[in-house]
Write the structure tokens for this entry.
Amino acid sequence: MSQWIYIGLFIIVGLIIPVGAIAAAWILGPKKANPIKQSTYECGIETVGDSWVQFKAQYYIFALVFLIFDVETVFLFPWAVKLSQLGLFAVIEGIIFILILIVGLVYTWRKGMLEWA
Amino acid sequence: MSFWNDPLKVAADWLMGIFTGWGMPEIAAQILIGFLGVLFLLSLLMVLDIFLVWVERKVVSRFQDRIGPNRVGPFGLIQPFADIIKLLIKEDITPNGADKVVYNLAPILSMMSVLILWAVMPLAPRMIGVDLNIGALYIIAAGAIGTLSIIMAGWASNNKYALIGAFRQVAVMVAFEIPMLTMLLIPTIFAGSMGFNAITEAQDVWFVWLAPLAALIFLIAAIAELGRAPFDMAEGESELVAGYNTEYSGMKFGMFYAGELLHAFTFGGFWAILFFGGYRFFGLEQVSAFLAVAVIFFKAFIGYWIIMWVRYTLLRIRIDHMLGFNWKFLTPLAFVLLMVVALLNALLAGTPTWVYVAVMFLSNVVLGWIALEFARSYSRKERERVEGVGQVVEAHH
């Protein structure tokens, strides 16, 4: 438990430092706002429309595959920690687990989902 | 325990004496001492960060056949301080359409995500912020906050360039986190622990001799996670102005910039801890804690230098090539390597150390060679498919 108090301290101090730097800049810097200065930067051209539009995320399938592998790796960490004590049987079991996931990757590949289109 | 062996404990005991002398309860004194220690470490890192700005500029100029900063102070050493003064007295602009809260939070989170990584960095024997037993997962989680800050910056700016940069960064993060996580598993297997202190202690033989291929894959994935060239999709200057931080100026931009540099240095450090023995260097760490800290910082600088070397040597890769490289090459290779290492680790149990090391090393080299041959034949086929059969002429032979 006391470990997480120190993690908390790191987070607090890690927030204080950038907040302090930005606050110092805010205090020291000039404040002369005008509409031209605060307009959206687009290489000198006036912005047309909003940026917050529906956006085609081409990597939607990538994200799904990523999610599967990410969760899988979380399962593999305890396996890796205890691997030396568990012996050959656990190793083969882990390998079968990884192979099943590789089959999934190959399937996605053959279906042509790993293309940026 | 002398000051040279364990300076943190000596300092903590000394402060404890003072604080309890003031009538402070012991638990409060302990937390206050922890706070001061963390503040000291992170302030030191910020000073180092200022120095890194100078290192980066000086190194890039040597790569590009220039001299770099050389006017302000000896070798231009005072230049970064001049830059800081400039950043401090610049106007803090928030664009009109921006989501103010998220816009201002992003640079803060960006810096924080890097600073909290140092909580699990073992700097010397008995000198580690928190010896978490899930250290490997912790650095992935902290790294995800960094990516989150990039998305926040890109989205909140209400700028099309920033948004596209942020979206690209998500694609990169989503891709390269898999090989990186998998390569974190390999030192975990060797050490039997996810804690970085245990991983360092286990390296009587540096893990790079056991798994050179893993070290290489980890470095590639780390460079991609850092968003540095050749994977700097998020800020392709020639197409997206500055990517996700287009709308940022002054100190907020400074936080992104400093965070990026420190992130690269930090990953140099983690690379050293995972594969190059961390603070250990032929028993030097037992002489004095200060020497151990010098060793880990030296190794981290070498890792940082390699990351810079890659950055300034290679060109930016197109995003579809990059994702193809990851999903069709790096990820399968990482999983095969993991299986080979796990299997050999079980089969070689009980053999003498030199046999273990030699077989592991050779299996890595052979696997790397096979993977390269596969990639070569695959890319030849792809080129033939794209350019038409018979059009491909080998470039050099």
